[in-house]
Amino acid sequence: MNKRISFVLYQQYLLNSSLTPTTYIPTVVNDNAHGDGIWDVAWSKNTNLVISASEDNTIKCWDGTSGELRFVLEGHAMGVISVDVSADGTQLVSTSVDSNIRLWDLENGILLKSFNASPAEVWKAKFSPDAQIIVAGSHNGDINFFNVKLGEKINSLPTKNKFIISVAYSPDGKYVAGGAEDGAIYVFNMETNQLAHTLSGHAMAVRALSFASDSKTLISGSDDQCIHVYDVEHGQLASTLTGHSDWVLSVAANPDSSKQQLASCGSDKRIKIWDLALRSVIETHEVHSDQVWGIAWNPEGTKLVSGSDDKSLKWFASSGSS
Fold first, then answer.
1. Which of 3, 22, 25, 226 has the lowest tally of Cβ within 10 angstroms?
2. Cross-sheet strand order for the sheet of 49-54
3. Taking the model in full, what pTM does it have?
């Protein structure tokens, strides 16, 4: 596409949407949020908490507006790999190198349940939309499903015996996706419990997956420095986003679907905000001194937070948001 056509399309986009790209301004900074690197972050609905998971074995819950520490969740014996919040914002699931899955009450900051999983069975984990199921990737290539009430594994879907590093549950509950160390992405239809698509395109490990709010768009981030946008219904690659100069460690679709935005971060220490309609970068932030493992939006899609190996948390807010 030549530059003139590209510019004309951009003008049409602005005229049609009556919007200009949103600028996200750095706001709250916590340079010593943890005693060691931060491996994941999440932002809860209703309870308005930013949750950070660290190599220092702890999970910390911060006020989403002020950045003040609300409470510390302790109990994992080793570094905390991932955290995910239930759709209503009241529960948190965490996974750790210690092979424990822990379920927490975010309203009171207490442990609800802990259940063991072998080292091969659990890596990163996500809640189902109704918070009744926890899905997790595994070292042996299975995508495992755990019943929250029973605290035990109830199902396992095999792939190709390659480490499933990342998982995602579509907001409508129809699809579960798993990203593997060899670059493949497996999408299962949960209505039929069958493999719907094997998505190709990445040349290296897929470390991050995120469904857009339409449940039809899947976004992936890989060690090959690329971000892919897939049409899950048809199993097709829609676009490739390039701009990171190292591993892409986390991707998060803006929950406000009208904005058509994506946030990403990586080993290049950068945070990028993308316009999915234009398939281009809106802005790049270089505020961390080490690789950035996690990024998360607030439920309204007006703010985001990032966590890094430099032990810090950084907040950003769109211009005009309170």
1. 3
2. 38-43, 49-54, 59-63, 69-73
3. 0.91
